[in-house]
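Board notes (copied after class):
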Amino acid sequence: MNNRWQTSRILSNLRFLLAQYWAYLLVGSNVAVILSVTLYPYAFIDQDYLSLILLLKGFFKPNSDLYDVISNVLLFLALGFGVGRIFQQRFSGKGLILIISLLLSANLSLMVEILQIFLPRRTSSLWDLGANVLGGVLGTVAFYLWKSAQRGLNMSRRSKSRLSFAALSYASLILCLMFSLQRNHNFSNWNSNFPLSIGNEQTGDRSWNGMISQVYFANRSLSAAEISQIFIPERSRDPTLPWLTGYQLTGNGDYPDQNGLSPDLEWREYPPESQAENQGMIALTHEHWLLTPKPATELIQAIQQTSQFSLLTTVATRDTNQTGPARIISLAASPFRRNLTIGQQGSSLIVRLRTPLSGLGETNTNLTFPDIFADTNRHQLLLNFEQNTLQLFVDKSEEVSTLKLSPEILFFHFLPAIGIRNFQVTPSNQWMLQLAFYGLVLSLPATLLLL
């Protein structure tokens, strides 16, 4: 009986503390999430030379898209909500509390923007700062709307505390899930015993009917200057570019890696009699495709260490209606055991990546770029992946499509596991997926808080 009384007292004290200090917990956890999302992976570098003029030009340049603005606003909402609660207990003026929320949001955002100067491939922007401040202020406005809704309902203090605790617990769970999704979208579970195949799977049952002339891999994403250089004729093979493995696919023979890192590509099934008529490309069919006789271990391990890659190839499909998807380039052992697959599904280019989220058996979530194979012309393709952002450049550095694999998008990565097969994420539908995600996760706490 005494132990039961002590347990009841501890739980009662815990509920009291959470009811009194939930806003501090909300603000602290939100600040932690902000710092994690905006500064991860914390790879700060020394800037030997910082040009104030260049920094100011970049800071005032509108380099944020709609997704960035929405994300930055949402990121600071919880901060503003918690600040409204904390300072409501100290000040009575709503205007003063809104100013405090604005200043705190601005200071935190400014600190992040300054730190991002020392992070490679991160850009500081006045637009991000403004979106963050807007998010903080809107969060405080949401707090006052919540308080007004609560006053309009005849609810006991105990009931309000329970509902607030339930909503806070739910929100904390979602924040933890989003953080986990972001951190686990990497290549740490890539299998280094997979071969490289071109035009089919190793098992020979996903053939692609098309032509190809080059395949180059790097274990990092390329800079804007390097990408521009690639699309200058005769510069894609420049030795200053960071290619680890490179194959020039011309002629009839086997094809060595020009850097000696990966095994040679060899013909499987029936080697073609002649490739002379293909104008510097080789033809791939269900009878003629390429495979390394040994695993591409060194290449896979290099990409695995950075969780980044760039892939350059020149291809032309011979059939705009191929399905499967038909495999163009794969680091895989079979159709369902892969590290990376580049394929064709109708007129779309399909990318499938193995990550800790997908597990050992890769799910059928397709990262889809429509209309790449709408014709049978030759196209130079560059895939660039870094920090959950996949870019596809087609024929020129200005022609780019982007998929940002944010936590909201990664949430839908689980749909194939519950029976929704061949789920598509495209540059156009990713906005709808993000809205659907927030509709799902915010509906329950909003209902609880407004009851």
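Comment from the instructor: The radius of gyration is 26 Å. Residues 416-420 have pLDDT under 50 and may be disordered.
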